[in-house]
Amino acid sequence: MNLFDLSGKVAIVTGSSRGIGRAIAEGFADAGARVVISSRNEAPCEEVAAAIRNKGGEAIAVTARISDKAQLENLVAKTREAWGQIDILVCNAAINPHYGKLEDLTDQVFERMMTNNVLSNLWLSRLVVPDMKAKREGSIIFISSIGGLKSSTVIAMYGVTKAADIALCRSLAAEWGPEGVRVNCIAPGLVETAFARALYEDPERRAKREAETPLRRLGQPEDIAGAALLLASKAGAFITGQTIIVDGGVMIA
What we know:
The chain is of the alpha/beta class. It has one domain: NAD(P)-binding Rossmann-like Domain (Rossmann fold, 3-Layer(aba) Sandwich), CATH 3.40.50. The chain has 7 helices and 7 strands; from the N terminus they run βαβαβαβαβαβααβ. The chain has helices spanning 19-30, 42-54, 69-83, 107-135, 156-176, 203-212, 221-232, and strands at 10-14, 34-38, 58-61, 88-91, 138-143, 181-188, 243-246. A 7-stranded parallel sheet has the order 3-2-1-4-5-6-7, with helices on both faces. α1 (19-30) packs across α7 (221-232), α3 runs parallel beside α4 (107-135) and α4 packs parallel to α5.
């Protein structure tokens, strides 16, 4: 038995036109899943879906703004229309428009970040869970962050939302576990993506972060894809309500 085989499974991955989301979607497709590529803009989504199909995989693109509940409903409806079921959901898309102190955070930005980074995950989870309950099997994965487990003076609000995702994951796991649905989080450290560029583009800051990391490097999107494949597949069949830290050892240093 191939514990990491996703043949016959259908997966939605938000924020999958680039970075961590793209690496997860491509990893799932390589494992045999049919993958829905989703982000705000159509062209990048179509590009990723086409690249997967060119390698022999199955993928479609459906755009959606995670802050718009109607667009998420359409994302789920289009997935069911194409493939009839949803077995795996990865909530990866998020925003971080506030770089600085909580003292300077506006109410508007607080509400916007909570909607995009937390409420959207609940919306999507509730939309897909009927399929999973019907089969008594399914995997929901939230991409959190070690920012949700430690303090910060520059990305504190992002950390607040990611801590909320961890709490949301635990409660949904307890609620849906009896019906065979698993809910887990992955908490990456600093990963080399466009989203996190502000945290590593300064050479001095990057060198300091690498020196503080036991593995002496920043993460790559593929590092997170491996953990997602574990949680989505039979290999993770007895894991639920957990937050897997993938940070090169930062949290134990």
